[in-house]
Design a protein that fits this description.
Blueprint (H helix, E strand, L loop, with lengths): L1 H12 L11 H21 L3 H4 L12 H4 L12
């Protein structure tokens, strides 16, 4: 008897909307898709930033080699 009364009460009430959404559900998906595509575009635009800088050279200049004439074995002087 209790079970029948619950079924009848549920059937009479129908669907009750507790919180109505401010827009159609399809727009949530469309807006999310657009935002994710904008984020993807921003990430892909940064992809070639590392290629803009010149490649580092392998030649190493030792401190003091230009003045002392030796090949990196010069001593440091106090008058830098």
């Amino acid at each position: 008897m209790l079970n029948t009364s619950l079924i009848l009460a549920a059937a009479e009430g129908g669907h009750h909307i507790v919180n109505e959404m401010p827009m159609d559900p399809i727009w949530y998906g469309v807006i999310t898709f657009v935002l994710l595509m904008a984020a993807l575009l921003a990430v892909l635009s940064m992809r070639s930033v590392g290629l803009r800088h010149p490649a580092p050279t392998t030649a190493v200049q030792h401190h003091g080699t230009a003045r002392s004439g030796s090949h990196g074995t010069g001593s440091h002087s106090a008058g830098h």
